Amino acid sequence: MRLLLLSDTHLPLRAKALQPQVWSLVEQADLVIHAGDWVDVATLDELEARSRRLVGVAGNNDGPELHARLGEVARVEVDGVRIAVIHETGPAAGRERRCDAQYGPSVDAPADVLVFGHSHIPWDSTTPGGLRLLNPGSPTDRRRQPFGTVMTAEVSGGRLHSVELVPTPR
């Protein structure tokens, strides 16, 4: 199963639209995950229409309608891989410890993968408890990065693999 991870699209404030490259990745994905800060309800509507399957959460820049439709935490299981999605995890310092405490193996509903956004800065690490933390960055607002980004990944045999940071130049 092919995954596309997005976050912090901030449309139409940071860009007028997603790049054609991103829409091509949406169409190739079996599951699109968006970790919040859509800003515009129209972006959610278009991603829902163009995705085979979409899982998303609302972020701190999203209004009441997006929060009502999405909520702040989403969970999905894909071929035995438990994925949680949130917008913000707090500062980079101590992130692994905090995420293990909230989503790691010792909690009632643990995740194997936590997808998050907010910083616009890509992140890929594994906590001491084995929780994979992934932030795809932002395709539209590169904030201190050389270019915008999304992530792709594959799930098969109950494992996440082939995680790739994909540049999204404008």
Summary keywords:
single chain; 29% strand; Purple Acid Phosphatase, chain A, domain 2; 170 residues; 4 helices; 21% helix; alpha/beta; five-stranded mixed sheet
Give a quick precis of the structure.
The chain is built from 4 helices and 10 strands.
Mind explaining what this structure looks like?
The protein is an alpha/beta fold and 170 residues long. The chain has one domain: Purple Acid Phosphatase, chain A, domain 2 (4-Layer Sandwich). The protein has four helices and ten strands. The chain has helices at 20-28, 41-50, 64-70, 95-103, and strands at 2-6, 31-34, 54-56, 74-78, 81-85, 113-115, 123-126, 132-135, 149-156, 159-167. Helix 4 links the parallel strand 5 (81-85) and strand 6. The radius of gyration is 15 Å and the shape is globular. The two termini are 28 Å apart.
Q: What is the H/E order? A: EHEHEHEEHEEEEE
Could you state the CATH homologous superfamily?
Answer: Metallo-dependent phosphatases
Mean pLDDT: 95
**What is the end-to-end distance?**
28 Å
Give the CA-based shape: globular
Poorly predicted runs:
none
Tally of distinct domains: 1
Largest sheet: 5 strands, mixed
The CATH architecture designation is 4-Layer Sandwich
Class computed from helices, strands and strand pairing: alpha/beta
- How many β strands by DSSP? 10
CATH hierarchy class name: Alpha Beta
Give the amount of beta strand, in percent.
Answer: 25-35%
CATH topology: Purple Acid Phosphatase, chain A, domain 2
Radius of gyration, CA atoms, in whole angstroms: 15 Å
Q: Strand sequence of the main sheet, in spatial order? A: 3-2-1-9-10
Helix content: 10-25%
**Distinct helical segment count:** 4
